[in-house]
Design goal:
Elements (H helix, E strand, L loop, with lengths): L6 E7 L2 E15 L4 E7 L3 E6 L2 E5 L3 H15 L5 E6 L4 H6 L7 E6 L2 H10 L1 H4 L7 E5 L2 H6 L5 E7 L13 H10 E10 L7 H12 L4 E8 L7 E8 L21 H6 L5 H7 L2
Parallel strand pairs: 6-7, 6-9, 7-8, 9-10
Antiparallel strand pairs: 1-2, 2-3, 3-4, 4-5, 10-12, 11-12
């Protein structure tokens, strides 16, 4: 009997898709907020899929999680209290708690089922959620930020794509709330999609953040399962310049992030610079 050839296809926009051959679907449900699937693939291992979009995979998750977490965490000289908005899989928290200076890390994830399923199927990603310094809150991150002024050293926005429950996380009003929630030398970073696929979003976010923060910086990483593979992150900093960060690695067990990568990530191709320097 012929073996079935099953594929998962993510339609990344009306003209672009990515496909992976799958072994099996391990979990599928519709939560209060979104569709959620866990799929086992031949190329990337297990994948967490929300509303048809790949969020993380066994094989390449470390790139996104290390670069969203360690670039701002190494830019801040002494990050003690950190907030992650979204990020229910726990990958960003796992990287944050590697920093010995951290006294408290708060996770504000609106969909509690993402946390539960990640613990079940991605224990290596969710491992940091059990750290005693971590406060896991099933809560709307937008509301949490509004209610905690002048409290955090670093805020990380680990959002899904700017559709559905994540739309508000790309609004200028939200970035203004983030600014108020940070201490006077605070830093925030948000994932801001692909320069090839979403230049208009990157331009808008850069303008909004620049109007609020003393320093705004875009940096890049390369994540094969995200649309086009080239991914951007936008940093707003009240005081500290990421290009002047200490040239030392405070944490162990990184697979992508290094001090050299930290600096290189801010060296932008000309076409990326032209997105927001017009």
């Amino acid at each position: 009997m012929a073996q079935m050839d099953l594929w998962f296809t993510e339609r990344q926009n009306e003209n672009l898709s990515i496909g992976m051959r799958i072994k099996e679907t391990l979990h599928s449900e519709v939560t209060e907020f979104q569709g959620m699937d866990v799929i086992d693939t031949f190329q990337y291992g297990k994948m967490l899929v929300l509303d048809g979009c790949v969020m993380t995979t066994d094989k390449d998750e470390f790139v996104y999680h290390e670069m969203l977490a360690h670039v701002p965490m190494h830019t801040h000289p002494n990050p003690k209290k950190v907030l992650v908005v979204g990020g229910g899989d726990g990958g960003i928290i796992r990287e944050i708690v590697k920093h010995p200076s951290v006294e408290k890390a708060v996770l504000a994830e609106i969909d509690g089922r993402v946390i539960e399923i990640s613990k079940q199927y991605f224990p290596h990603i969710a491992s940091g959620l059990s750290d005693p310094r971590v406060d896991v809150q099933v809560a709307d991150g937008i509301v949490h930020v509004q209610e905690h002024e002048n409290e955090y050293d670093v805020i990380l926005i680990d959002s899904t794509d700017p559709i559905g429950p994540a739309v508000g996380l790309f609004a200028k009003e939200f970035y203004a709330s983030v600014h108020r929630a940070l201490k006077d030398d605070g830093i925030f970073v948000a994932q801001t999609e692909s320069p090839f696929k979403d230049p208009d979003l990157i331009r808008r976010v850069h303008e909004d953040v620049s109007s609020l923060f003393a320093q705004t910086h875009l940096y890049l990483a390369y994540i094969p399962t995200y649309p086009t593979g080239m991914w951007s992150f936008t940093m707003g900093s009240k005081r500290h310049n990421p290009l002047e960060a200490a040239n030392e690695l405070r944490v162990k067990d990184t697979r992508y992030y290094t001090p050299a990568i930290h600096k290189a990530a801010f060296a932008l191709p000309r076409f990326v610079e032209e997105i927001f320097r017009r």
